[in-house]
Amino acid sequence: MRFATRVVHSGHEVDGPHGSVVPPIHVATTYDRFAQDPPTHFYSRGENPTMAALERCLAEVEGAAHCAVFSSGQAAATTALSLLSPGQRLVCCDDVYGGTHALITGLRRFGVLVDQVDLSDQDLAAAALADDVAMVWLETPTNPLLKVIDIAAVSRLAHARGALVVVDNTFASPALQQPLRWGADVSLHSTTKFVAGHSDVLGGALVCDDPALHRAFTDHRTLAGNVPSGMDCFLVHRGVKTLSVRVERQVRTAQTLVDLLLDAPGVTEVLYPGLPTHPGHEIAARQLSAPGSIISFRYAGQVEKLLAGTDLFACAVSLGGVRSLIECPALMTHRPIPVEVRVAAGITDDLVRLSIGIEDPTDLADDLTTALTAGL
Ligand SMILES: *Cc1c(COP(=O)(O)O)cnc(C)c1O
């Protein structure tokens, strides 16, 4: 089955006695042993049939053997990072999701050595991975600068050191990028974003091929209790069915808006992996099936007026939903980062990030043009 069919059909065994064409929402916390032959369900902190259906779906969608789902992307990250022991070293890309940055910083308290490196620079990546390392963590494209990291190249270096490679695949979604194909060991998703796609449910996932790794994730989840509810699993499973059509539309509109921004008054730079001038363009063209629907740009006008000047773009954090969003990382998502660190990384006050939804492209273009003019 091809991707657009898999997102609709995966994990959807028809419910025997009733013939319902969608998986039922199981809300039971506990299961009667003698009513099952053989007994497979025990307690919902470990497993639940609605959760299991979603896991089969997301594993198949990403072309992997296993998937474990979680109550949020952060919950999935917490479980993945729980593999690290005191004295071990984690190498993480520098432009990383704010929540991940806080989690890995917290690991230092437990004696884990943490190095943040620009892994989109092949020389810096090689130098960082020349020493002992237990885990390499990367996002590509990164947030909000949309830097592109070569998953295959980093995985080769990491595996030579025996390190595990975790790719946060939230920005690309399984529709555009499948990290395990490029040698990564684990693909992480905040399913809150593109996978569920409607900004109405939190969720996370860890996708992998190795059964022992999967077992470690589900064992940790059972103990940590960071499981999603049956209702949440149903919503994510319902959302993923339209992933293919949503992303197709979102990418097409993003490309139109990139063209608009390149010529727009006040826009001094457009960051988008689909542009031939983007430093990661070549890797992106190989690694991603399309350049995505997140656009960052630098704006010479008044950013606050631009944010307030849009009608259709909600000024909000998060991304990947059906509704278009606009945000200023320096004021919003990346505000907790110390100013000098943020600015040195290129996340300056004039940087604006768009997440393109599925609205009519002409309406979005008109709205953006009005707002860009309002800020000048
Ligand atoms: C949102 C996000 C997360 C965290 O996911 P939550 O579902 O909000 O916990 C992790 N990584 C990236 C890239 C994200 O955008």
From TrEMBL:
It is an enzyme of class 4 (lyase). One of its GO terms (molecular function) is cystathionine gamma-synthase activity. InterPro entries: Cys/Met-Metab_PyrdxlP-dep_enz, Cys_met_metab_PP, PyrdxlP-dep_Trfase, PyrdxlP-dep_Trfase_major, PyrdxlP-dep_Trfase_small. GO terms for cellular component: cytoplasm. The keyword Lyase applies. GO terms for biological process: cysteine biosynthetic process via cystathionine; transsulfuration. Its EC number is 4.4.1.2. The keyword Lyase applies. Keywords: Lyase, Pyridoxal phosphate. The modification N6-(pyridoxal phosphate)lysine is found at K193. Its cofactor is pyridoxal 5'-phosphate. It catalyses: L-methionine + H2O = methanethiol + 2-oxobutanoate + NH4(+); L-homocysteine + H2O = 2-oxobutanoate + hydrogen sulfide + NH4(+) + H(+). It comes from the Bacteria. Belongs to the trans-sulfuration enzymes family. This is homocysteine desulfhydrase.
